[in-house]
Write a structure and sequence with these properties.
Layout: H1 27-41, E1 45-46, E2 53-58, E3 61-68, E4 71-76, H2 79-92, E5 103-104, E6 107-108, H3 132-145, H4 153-160, H5 169-177
Antiparallel strand pairs: 1-2, 2-3, 3-4, 5-6
């Protein structure tokens, strides 16, 4: 790296940067450290399973924030807390709210109302899904994912043993949330 034009530096001296510059190797680390310290001030904690996943649990509910480079997903059941988080981050960083999630890391995200929560899991339980091929593709993708994520193997293989031809709403909930 060369010193900035107009800066005279003796040949046996080095420059010490006080902050990371975009494009340098330490810039992503500096960005993550700044983001982490900022989000911790709002009461979020880092997940012990993924350092890019931050969560906050309150009496109103849970909020999850997943950070990938400079993209983030914010979700949870505390809608006022989500808005508070967005407002806080907008004051700290330049950011744009892109609305509901449609794509993330090459995955298409769809929203469904066919899902029943808190039902007991049986091979014939729940409503048949309107499009069982989506369930079949989800199971196949998740089985492939277990190669690098053994922590989800149990849930995926339980979902794989269910009736794949019809696909039922309770099976989908089990695969997505790991509970029946």
């Amino acid at each position: 790296m060369q010193p900035s034009p107009g800066l005279s530096v003796e040949s046996n001296k080095v420059c010490h940067l006080r902050r990371a510059h975009y494009g340098l190797k330490q810039a992503p680390r500096a960005w993550f450290a700044k983001f982490s310290s900022t989000i911790f001030r709002l009461g979020y904690t880092a997940s012990p399973y993924d350092s890019a996943l931050f969560l906050r649990r309150t009496d109103k509910g849970t909020i999850l924030l997943l950070l990938y480079v400079d993209d983030m997903i914010i979700t949870g059941d505390d809608l006022s807390g989500i808005q508070e988080l967005k407002d806080f981050l907008s004051q700290q960083f330049e950011m744009k709210d892109l609305g509901h999630l449609n794509y993330f890391l090459g995955l298409e995200i769809t929203h469904s109302t066919d899902v029943e929560l808190n039902v007991h899991l049986t091979p014939s339980g729940g409503k048949p899904l309107s499009n069982p091929s989506l369930y079949i593709r989800l199971v196949g993708s998740l089985v492939y994912l277990t190669v690098t994520r053994p922590d989800i193997s149990y849930v995926v293989h339980q979902g794989n043993h269910l009736e794949l031809r019809t696909g039922r709403s309770s099976h989908l909930v089990f695969l997505l949330f790991g509970k029946d």
